[in-house]
Design goal:
mainly alpha
């Protein structure tokens, strides 16, 4: 058996430390959230129980945890749907080069390199100057799209650059209209990528802080509510909230992965049936 080089163990140790640094804080918060009723915000732990999760679902003296959770959930779905629709439309439009397309593309993704807090400040100022109310569902929605849309566009551009146009040509030869080609040919083929864009849109919106800070108005989203709780909550209930939101995020990711798996399985079965029929 060939002996592993020393560099292998060095890199493995470095990667292990990186994983510990990456997930250690989350695991620490999760562990502290299961403390007993007399537990505090630091170690050593005072027993083990679900006490703080039980208190999490009771009326809190400060903050609006579940109201902010509903707002983040609603905003996440709004951003997700808009990101998917606009990204697909832009991907279809950019398949054919047009005058100014390169400039438009660079303008669309420039917001990724602009500091998020400046985006939040700028959107908030624009709404104030125009006389519109700064609200999480309007200005907050707009500022978050400056974060999610560039990711969606980049994914769709990559997908359509590799898309085989012969499938569309075959459908048109069979008499399909433009809308039928899009709905019955293009969308099923790019469906896994659409799920990826949707997941990007939802998760980036759900935990976005900086671009929502100055655009949410008088109602907090969940990240803003958690930040506010760090200054006035002195019990592990805030850790319980962090653990709950982490599990919720994992459930959402798992749901999207299951959808992708089902789509791929359905596609495999369709291809197999087509080959059998041929």
């Amino acid at each position: 058996m060939e002996k592993r080089p020393r560099s292998f163990y060095v890199l493995a140790s470095f990667f292990s430390l990186f994983l510990l640094f990456l997930y250690g804080p989350t695991l620490t918060i999760g562990l502290l959230s299961f403390q007993g009723p007399k537990g505090g915000l630091t170690f050593p732990m005072q027993g083990m129980s679900f006490n703080w999760f039980r208190e999490l679902f009771e009326q809190q003296a400060v903050g609006d945890i579940w109201g902010s959770f509903r707002r983040s959930l609603t905003l996440g779905f709004m951003v997700m749907i808009t990101t998917v629709i606009v990204s697909v439309m832009a991907g279809l439009a950019f398949r054919k080069r047009f005058k100014g397309s390169a400039l438009l593309f660079y303008f669309a993704i420039t917001s990724l390199v602009i500091p998020s807090i400046l985006i939040s400040l700028g959107v908030g100022l624009i709404f104030n100057q125009l006389g519109f109310k700064v609200h999480w569902a309007t200005s907050g929605f707009g500022s978050q799209l400056t974060w999610t849309l560039p990711f969606g566009l980049l994914i769709m551009f990559a997908v359509f650059n590799r898309f085989d146009k012969s499938f569309e040509e075959a459908a048109r030869d069979q008499g399909a209209s433009s809308w039928q080609v899009i709905w019955h040919v293009i969308v099923p083929i790019i469906a896994p990528s659409l799920i990826g864009v949707a997941l990007f849109g939802f998760t980036l919106s759900y935990d976005e802080f900086a671009r929502t800070l100055l655009t949410s108005g008088s109602y907090n989203t969940l990240p803003l509510e958690i930040f506010g709780m760090t200054t006035n909550v002195t019990t592990p209930v805030i850790y319980a909230l962090g653990t709950f939101t982490t599990f919720f995020s994992l459930i959402v990711i798992g749901l999207f992965l299951v959808i992708v798996w089902l789509l791929n399985k359905r596609r495999t079965l369709s291809v197999a049936r087509t080959k059998e029929a041929a």
